[in-house]
Design brief:
CATH class of one domain: Mainly Beta
Number of strands: 5
Shape: elongated
CATH superfamily of one domain: Nucleic acid-binding proteins
Largest sheet: 5 strands, antiparallel
Mean pLDDT: 74
CATH topology of one domain: OB fold (Dihydrolipoamide Acetyltransferase, E2P)
CATH architecture of one domain: Beta Barrel
Helix content: 25-40%
Strand content: 25-35%
Strand order of the largest sheet: 3-2-1-4-5
Low-confidence stretches: none
């Protein structure tokens, strides 16, 4: 007898837990930001176009777009002034280009090369455009090259050399 009451109690507990879980799921679905039925209806309405204007396209004065007007009237452009444009002053200065000569040692890996100079070997990062030029260049070729030093993000003390231009010198 004792065994059957435990089973009933276990079934009752499971049923109660299931009902609570179902209630929580329904409550979260009802309180969510989107309605599943609206999304389904929106997907079923193919061919409809939302013709409401974008808020940023509305005229500033009234906030209403006339029915005959497809876009707001253009505003007058600023006249060129004699004062210099200071917007470029906020940009970072371009890395200075350095010029050097040496002996091309070849590709180190798929994106870098080494050039032996009078001051030692310089590893240089390359772009895909320069890679096609370098693949035709023989190893141990005398070269004149231009490169920039770029700081690595997170550690300004480490610099990476990037090849800008290279040409074989006879």
């Amino acid at each position: 007898m004792m065994n059957s009451s435990k089973r009933r109690k276990n079934k009752t507990t499971k049923a109660t837990a299931g009902a609570v879980l179902l209630a929580v799921m329904l409550a979260t679905a009802a309180c969510g930001g989107t309605n599943a039925n609206q999304e389904t209806n929106a997907n079923n309405q193919q061919g409809t176009v939302d013709e409401s204007p974008v808020v940023s396209d509305l005229p500033e004065e009234s906030g209403v777009l006339e029915p005959d007007v497809s876009a707001p009237e253009p505003t007058a452009t600023a006249e060129p002034s004699d004062t210099p444009d200071n917007s470029s002053a906020t940009e970072e200065p371009a890395d200075p280009i350095k010029v050097n000569e040496g002996t091309y040692s070849g590709l180190s890996d798929s994106h870098s090369i080494e050039i032996e100079t009078a001051s030692g070997v310089i590893p240089l990062q390359i772009t895909d455009e320069l890679k096609t030029v370098l693949e035709t260049m023989p190893d141990d070729a005398k070269v004149k090259f231009e490169y920039t030093e770029k700081e690595i993000e997170g550690d300004p003390t480490i610099k990476q050399n990037w090849l800008v231009k290279i040409e074989q010198v006879k």
